[in-house]
């Protein structure tokens, strides 16, 4: 696919590559020290690294540092193709992995189903030990029993082992002993107090098991890729995008593979924020709409984090950018339901067969509706490399036209209206759940289909401004280039702070100190001598069962109380200054600035300009509409207009005005 | 979905009175209001029951009190929400900013911990003001007073279960009615937490009021035209009815009977029968519960709303995933509920276990009747009990009082599509368990075992799921209440499958003595004593070894 060069004002620097491997495409963004270059090629799902190495060879690029968004761990979980694992846990708890929190995924189902645990019955073993909530040992570990359990693990054919004992986050000695005996036998070991040193045994066990399941494959994959990169340049460093918007070294990413499950979406959010910041905009909703799903994240001037993820129906607790995935995309299929209402999704034509306009499917999709209305231009799709089949799109949409007095146009409009209503509903709920009003945000739309729907959604949500980044199709790769290097360390505990207690909490302070040393040491190991430290803690009022992660500047008890009161008030509208509180997790983050390159993608996108034309396009009614290549846009333009580029199509509806910004972004606002 | 595709191919009866896209957009916006209220409530609520277990529902109504949309996470609220507006009808005339509050199970509630709020919504244009609808929220508040912490005691009368709130105003024209709130907070154990939850519910109401007014503005509240708000509401209800009828059409017309039993009511050994005569036709279902037991001086009595909820739950399982919830959906159901019975309780009896235990048996009975119509197509019975365990005492570590409440899952019935799931919540509940680590940190208790109760699922071509075993050690003297069922008769099998094993409650004293406890009981335990709850397995489906 075509490669585009951009000019920047930057001085020469280190050669950097951001690369995001998706299901269909692998996206490259390369900073050669002077300019940014973009490349997109088909992925190689059997060995995702091959597309990277071949892409580099095709372009003749020799990056000194590669930041990589990888779906390897996610795919292993989704396709259940990880290592053969065993589990060792405390007596009485080997079924915890199966029982979980005892809830079924679907409330109203004739025959409820849930995913099987990653480790079957026969490979879950127990040892008779017990640590109490305060860390004291109620029943000591019996080494002979451990040895027998490990014999059984080996006989089961397992090559990876997860160890999760009760209260190991308070006192890890039993887990450590079992881990060291297991490693002596050559097993790949994941230990719960290292993976997730927090209370709630099921979530810790599930996360530890997921890590054991994917770590061997991830380690193999990354060392292969690293070797390939170093065959060209022995000094090339490989880093992997983490779910939390930072990046980590390849060795660590292999060991802590479960921390990369949201690697790609995190890159998109970081990229959206960076793009918006380049235009001086801080409060954004990132809206990444592709063919089968849409990732949405709220950024109120910062990245929001969450740690309660689900991958393939299994809970995984790991710090991640707060991204919500909706099952709506360009491939969402429209149907008429039994009650007579038009539905769009949740069924999707996916990548295969895809929308009818792609030539293989025949179900009417959102994409087909855009084609019927003339909004997606058949000759300019994907830079003209793929011609859309208008007849097929019309035939597909016509199957529903009966209920719209036979009007193809009205049917297509209706499909888009309903699709937008669904997405607006989801966006609104996501915002309110997090305590925000979407109208206070700028919508940053990207992905193949995001810029098609952005303005309509903005109207539904009362959002005044839409921003389309310069490269909406490779924004995740851009985010990877910018992601800071982050290492975190945490420690679960239950520390009570009484309402009137004075002074500093020495236990918390010494825990922070130890965690900081751990995080800094990790950074040094990766070659980052200097890093900034951020402390935070999960706090709650005694008696609550949910915590808030709160930044902590000091370990004085008054400061801890004040920090919780402030966050609690901001989040829930009230606080309890007179109640004792509990510190449940202490967290430390070491942060080093990511790859730095000056400036952003400049405005002058060059390339195959398809030229300007005028066409009749249906908005509320048919209008003569300007259709031009985005790269050809030099000044503001009033809607109706359609801007096409290699990786996306941007709609500027009537009543809206689009203005290219120096940063390369396109800013679209409703005209007063 | 039960049988065959319901959506997909056009049929003549499916014409909506308004444009199908306009209908879908209206439905989406109405549902969005309910969801936004729910998000606000959950966001602002204080107690874990609302925050973590999502034990709440929010709903939107038209001016006639017809349910337009509901965001329900708890099936037991399905049948109670539609009645919310009629429950407060006596408080009319309304003013903007009014909020009514209630929890009386005999006047629009379910059981006392479920606190409901209802507000009227007006649309103002110029000097004219017009009622366009109502919004309501219902949340399970963790304690509402009464004999025991958590307000779920083994009781005989409703007044023992907690503080009763008949429909009264909490806000009048936007101003708090302080007497209502003061009286309420003085009658509960944890007033600060209740205040937080009440504030959260009020916040949800206010969000719902604003958004419903905006929806009415957008669609035009004129009401008469083809495009007005009320026209869209009517079209939405009609579409709900068509969806329900399409689901019901998969069941052959006829009359089907089924009966099942609760083991006992906790005051005697006498089983409690629930009987149903289900008549199905193209026009809908009639559910006649005549012959069910009379109400008892115990807490197993279900109010009519709970019986409706259990029946609506079964209907929802027959519809496609994501089907909307509105009053139209429930129109084709007609109930015949005997007065003063366990399925239609009247004052003064207690009702808390009606909500959690009897509701499960009503579900079994409705499924059992449908199974007569569709032999071989319906799964066997699931655990059929929430295995309620409540405990409390004084924590020797802090010297303060503690109270704990837990429900446990069991086996699901096997069905034509495969074996039943093991150790999971079934039918009317889906609440999470308390992690052993969270529990030991918070209470003087220790979980010794949390395991699958192997081979407790009924045998069959597709086995029933297994129940679970939870052994809990008490580290200090405590009072323990168990409200459990299916301790005598296991969940039934279907299509030749065998019944699941009944559950069992055991007391293992620190002294070494062991004994089986009744299904419903309150006992004193000491330090080192262990309660072992074994929950029922699901029934098997099909003859074992037949394929």
Summarize the structure.
With 672 residues, chain A is of the alpha+beta class. Among the domains of chain A are: 83-213, 3-Layer(aba) Sandwich (Dna Topoisomerase Vi A Subunit, Chain: A, domain 2); 485-592, 2-Layer Sandwich (Dna Ligase, domain 1), CATH 3.30.1490. In chain A, helix 9 (263-278) crosses helix 14 (475-482) and helix 10 crosses helix 12 (408-433).
Task: Jot down its keywords.
heterodimer; A: 672 residues; alpha+beta; Dna Topoisomerase Vi A Subunit, Chain: A, domain 2; Dna Ligase, domain 1; eight-stranded mixed beta sheet; seven-stranded mixed beta sheet; 16 helices; globular; disordered N terminus; B: 547 residues; 2 domains; seven-stranded antiparallel beta sheet; five-stranded antiparallel beta sheet; 26% helix; 24% strand
Give a verbal description of the structure:
The complex is a heterodimer of chains A (672) and B (547). Chain A has an 8-stranded mixed sheet, sandwiched between helices. In chain A, helix 10 (366-372) crosses helix 12. Chain A has 16 helices and 33 strands. In chain A, 30% of the residues lie in helices and 28% in strands. The longest helix of chain A is centred in the first third of the chain and has 32 residues, at 201-232. Mean pLDDT of chain A is 89; it is low at 1-12 and 602-607. Chain A has 672 residues and is α+β, with helices and mostly antiparallel strands. Chain B has 547 residues and is of the alpha+beta class. In chain B, 26% of the residues lie in helices and 24% in strands. Chain B has helices spanning 20-44, 48-51, 84-87, 158-161, 178-186, 191-219, 229-248, 304-318, 327-330, 352-373, 436-442; strands spanning 56-62, 67-72, 99-102, 114-125, 128-140, 168-172, 175-176, 254-262, 272-281, 284-288, 333-336, 388-394, 401-406, 445-453, 467-474, 478-483, 504-508, 514-517, 520-525, 530-534. Chain B has a 7-stranded antiparallel sheet. The model of chain B is unreliable at 1-15 (pLDDT under 50). At the A-B interface, helix 3, helix 7, strand 20 and helix 12 of A face helix 1, helix 6, helix 7, helix 8 and helix 11 of B.
